[in-house]
Structures are given as structure tokens and as C-alpha cells.
Write a structure and sequence with these properties.
Blueprint lengths: L11 H17 L2 H27 L11 H34 L17 H16 L3 H11 L19 H19 L9 H7 L8 H23 L8 H21 L4
Helix pairs in contact: 1-3, 2-3, 4-5, 4-8, 8-9
Length: 267
């Protein structure tokens, strides 16, 4: 995949710092779910031990608190694991954040100074997410994309099927338009919202380096959203798709099917 095409591409060191923050968020993104699963497992194990020990030792050792012992232990261990993940993330991104700040960049607002660290594929995915949210009436979440990335409903972009692909002239023009909106807002004194682990876990908002596996996963993700919107709008019958859109719809479905087969997973 080509380097992102944008009027002002950051230097390699700056891009590497953004990608380090993105990797750290990727690895920490599932921390909450893992901590919850760990806590639940501990609750079940401790509860089983309490029940098994009751015939031998009774429950007098725990008094009236015996029923809540598993919950307390599970919550403590799960909460501790979650806190450790958060502290580890904070320590890992501290140096990149400091170095970005020295360059006049805000690590909590990755797109404030342009989209040069974002590959086209990730921007297509983010724009598909935005369109999906608009269709669900999730105005607050959609506004996060508008204020962070310069997206707008009137963009020359449509998913279901995709009207714009990565690494094309149309995508370059969209980039320029989005960056113009971002810079215009900043000049008026409106700062983009602060982004963190919660937003990244939901939408992967920090720049990602497009390794081959990452690119394939990103393409699959945006095609999955686009195809879902296609089915919602026109149904599953191929003939229901308007003639001007059929070629694009067929292209998206074929590419998505190929990516699914390559990953060895069902859609």
C-alpha cells in the first residue's frame, strides 16, 4: 500500500510516534473485556471452592459474608488486571506523547494537524463507520467523526456499495476536503475532541501502520459495513440493486468474499 497522499505528510519520525500510540491502543483495547472474563472466571472458581469446602470446614470462617466472597475476590482480581492494563498503556505512550508535544502536536487529537499519518484504507473504514452511525441516528457518535476527521454527510462518499476506493484520485480529493474542514475549525478556535482508549477501542481512531495483515483486516472491516448497508437498503436479491450501482456492489461482494476465504472465517 502506498504512503498516505496528503498535502503535508509528517516526517517519518512523527509517523512512527503515531503508529506506536496506535499499536499501544490496539493491544490495550481488549483489556476491559479480558479483565471482565478473568473476574468472572475467578468468581466461578472461588464459588466452587467455597461450596466444596463447606462439608469439611463449614462456612463459619466467612460468617455471613460467605455468599459475597467469590464476588469480592473476582472483582478485586478483575479490577486489578484492568488497572494494570491501563497503567501499562499510560507508561507505554508517555514517551511518544511527550515527543509529539515537543513537535507542537497533541497526542489526544491525532487528526488536528492533518490526516497525513492515516492510510487511505483506514480513512475509508472510519468514513464507513461514520455513515453507519448516521444511518442509526447516533448523532453524538457521528459528531465525534465530524469534529475529529472533518467528515460531513454531503461528502462525495457513499458506502453500500462503496463509491470511493483507497489510493485513487477521488480519495485524494476527499482527504483535501476533510483537512480543509479540520483546519477551518481550528482557525475558528474549535479544537477537535480528545480521543483516548475508549474511542479507539470502539472505532480505531488513532493512526495504524498498514502491515499486510492490518490492511487485509481493515479492508474486510469496511467492506463488511458497506455490504451490510447495501443489504439494508436494497435487500439480498441482486436485481434489487439499481443498475448504476450493480457493478460496484458486485465488486465489493467479490472482494469481501475473497478476504473472508483468505482469513478462513465465515462472513
Amino acid at each position: 500500500m502506498q504512503r498516505p497522499r496528503t498535502p503535508e505528510v509528517p516526517d517519518e519520525e512523527t509517523i512512527a510516534l503515531w503508529y506506536e500510540i496506535g499499536r499501544a491502543h490496539s493491544e490495550a483495547g481488549g483489556g476491559g473485556r479480558l479483565a471482565w472474563k478473568l473476574g468472572l472466571t475467578v468468581v466461578c472458581v472461588v464459588a466452587a471452592l467455597v461450596l466444596l469446602s463447606a462439608p469439611v470446614f463449614g462456612t463459619a470462617w466467612a460468617g455471613p459474608f460467605a455468599p459475597v466472597v467469590p464476588i469480592v475476590v473476582g472483582a478485586s482480581i478483575g479490577g486489578g488486571a484492568f488497572a494494570w492494563k491501563r497503567l501499562r498503556l499510560r507508561g507505554r505512550i508517555e514517551a511518544p506523547r511527550r515527543l509529539l508535544a515537543e513537535k507542537g502536536l497533541d497526542a489526544s487529537r491525532p487528526a488536528r494537524d492533518g490526516l497525513g499519518a492515516y492510510y487511505d484504507a483506514q480513512l475509508v473504514l472510519l468514513r464507513c463507520e461514520y455513515e453507519f452511525l448516521l444511518g442509526r441516528g447516533a448523532a453524538k457518535s457521528a459528531r465525534l467523526f465530524e469534529e475529529s476527521f472533518g467528515f460531513a454527510p454531503e461528502d462525495a462518499f457513499e458506502a453500500g456499495p462503496l463509491s470511493v476506493l483507497p489510493d485513487t484520485e477521488e480519495m485524494r480529493k476527499l482527504r483535501e476536503g476533510w483537512e480543509t474542514r479540520i483546519s477551518s475549525r481550528v482557525r475558528r478556535g474549535a479544537q477537535p475532541p480528545v480521543l483516548g482508549l475508549r474511542e479507539d477501542a470502539a472505532y480505531r481512531v488513532f493512526p495504524r501502520e498498514m502491515t499486510v495483515p492490518a490492511e487485509l483486516a481493515t479492508r474486510r472491516a469496511y467492506l463488511e459495513i458497506s455490504n451490510k448497508l447495501l443489504v439494508e437498503r436494497y435487500g439480498r436479491e441482486p436485481g434489487a440493486v439499481p443498475e448504476p450501482l450493480r457493478r460496484r456492489a458486485g465488486r465489493d461482494l467479490r472482494e469481501y468474499g475473497a478476504l473472508v476465504r483468505k482469513s478462513g472465517r465465515r462472513p
